[in-house]
Amino acid sequence: MPDSDHAIAATFAPHDHQQCAHRALDEAAARLTEQGARLTPVRRRTLEILLESHRAMGAYEVLDRLAAEGFGRQPPVAYRALEFLVTHGLAHRLQRLNAFAACLHPGHDHHPAFLICRSCDKVAEAAAAPIRDALTAVAAQGGFRVERATIEALGLCATCAAEGVA
Amino acid sequence: MPDSDHAIAATFAPHDHQQCAHRALDEAAARLTEQGARLTPVRRRTLEILLESHRAMGAYEVLDRLAAEGFGRQPPVAYRALEFLVTHGLAHRLQRLNAFAACLHPGHDHHPAFLICRSCDKVAEAAAAPIRDALTAVAAQGGFRVERATIEALGLCATCAAEGVA
DNA sequence: GCGATGGCGTTACTTTATTACATTCAGGTT
DNA sequence: AACCTGAATGTAATAAAGTAACGCCATCGC
Ligand SMILES: [Zn+2]
Ligand SMILES: [Zn+2]
Ligand SMILES: [Zn+2]
Ligand SMILES: [Zn+2]
To answer: Using a 7 Å CB cut-off, which residues contact strand C?
Structure first.
């Protein structure tokens, strides 16, 4: 992940989010073309909805939006689109929240660590490599081979801290 | 956590589980006495059920067991007992699995990392300190203050690997 | 054009979790 | 002993999250 030192701050700090979302959508489309997968209307719209903010959204929250815009109104509609996005590395699932967030760095580290601000609810992706290394090392001492890791932190972002949130 | 190098292997390898479970239950009772909390029949039985194996159990699986033994048969019965155990550090909740596992080291590291074997389904607790340190450091670079971390690894334990599971 | 495939929509259902409220029980007070 | 009180337990009802099964239609390779 390039700019990994700044990616976290960039998520939480005020920024030109129009551009931020637009770039992520473009990257996503590019990656799908590479992979020969189709970015259909529901899928595209689902990704756009996730990209509207840096928050994670529940499947039913996404579904309500899709239904309001003329797409299907049954759970599988949302779950399928979300699963597609996750499978293709364009979105992530947050276990703690039973929710989904758009990936802002498609193509880089597909299994990042997540930083969830308990005040503003925004979610940032952090480089997981050093953390996963530590985990892998601890596990290896017990003979355990790590294949997939879920790393999610709850805490307070710099912006909220600066605003005096305890 | 003492014996942290061996705690993982001890969970997955064959061992005197009677004693293993008994010791955990005794420690749990001792801790509750310290804290002035009550280990009521449902709570005790819930912990015993979790301690029967090193697997994580869903709330409804626990509930079925409790109901069969004459306790209430509505979800809150299980959820309340489980929440009590989690709150008092006697059990852990696994986010990936929507399930609960007894804590084998009550009083030591109350927020361990979890190693979940995809073959035998056993769950081991690993020292989280080095992992959390790496996470905290990465987050700090982005101005994020970590308060709680969820660290869960899916993989293969030494015992299953030795048995030739791919 | 035509069959195969993938995507989308539906209905129906399962699993997981919470809210609200009545009842019981241990502990201390009078 | 009678009484109060708060914690613990039970219930019913409902919400929230997720999946299975099936039909229709569009797109694509032929
Ligand atoms: Zn943005
Ligand atoms: Zn924040
Ligand atoms: Zn054991
Ligand atoms: Zn195993």
So the answer is: A 37-38, 40-43, 71-77, 80-81, 84; B 58-61, 74-76, 79, 98
